[in-house]
Write a structure and sequence with these properties.
6-stranded mixed β-sheet, 6 strands, alpha/beta
């Protein structure tokens, strides 16, 4: 297993060079996004909601909140593994009036080691990360994508790649993210959905 490479603004150029070398060889890619919780909650009877209603809850949260970190692990076609943790600067907890967040999620992430003081000053801009992801060859490699409980992870990843809010409806989101020729292609695997 590869050590996770923590990426901040100061080492972004060096890590970008490695990412550019590895990404076109990706056979598998796993994504994980840390975000400041959920501020829009699902209806009380979640199991009775439609897929469209559930998407609207995910979309509302992803559109209102800024991602904190993007984790990407890559396994290349020749069996090598690499992992990065990109720390992003778009969220400033000290300017809470300008940031929407869930306080219990912030407390949880703090216990897990997120440095909220460093993010706004030392993190990577989402524009720089988007440029890296789009120019690296990762999307063109068409790897099999994996995530765990991935609705939010895929939504935030799509938001990063698109540089804008998510599509208004589920059908357009699925076409944009998972359709043939779309951002990620048809091979997105959610580990949690496979656990019984």
């Amino acid at each position: 297993m590869a050590a996770v490479r923590a990426v901040w603004a100061e080492n972004f150029a060096v890590e970008s060079a490695l990412f550019h070398a590895v990404a076109p060889l990706a056979a598998y890619a796993a994504i994980n996004v840390q975000y400041p919780g959920c501020v829009v909650t699902a209806p009380r009877y979640y199991d009775l909601t439609t897929a469209e209603q559930r998407y609207q809850v995910v979309r509302a949260n992803a559109d209102q909140l800024e991602p904190l970190q993007l984790g990407i692990a890559i396994r290349t076609s020749d069996g090598r593994t690499f992992a990065w943790e990109f720390n992003l600067n778009g969220f400033d907890l000290a300017a809470a009036a300008n940031n929407t967040c869930n306080p219990s999620s912030i407390a949880y992430l703090r216990r897990r080691g997120i440095d909220f003081n460093a993010l706004p000053w030392s993190g990577v801009s989402t524009a720089s990360l988007r440029s890296l992801l789009l120019s690296s060859g990762l999307l063109l490699a068409r790897p099999f994508w994996a995530t765990f409980a991935g609705a939010y992870h895929v939504a935030y990843f799509a938001k990063l790649l698109l540089g804008t809010n998510l599509p208004d409806d589920l059908a357009t989101f699925e076409e944009t993210v998972g359709g043939l020729g779309a951002l990620l292609g048809p091979n997105v695997y959610d580990v949690r959905l496979q656990i019984t």
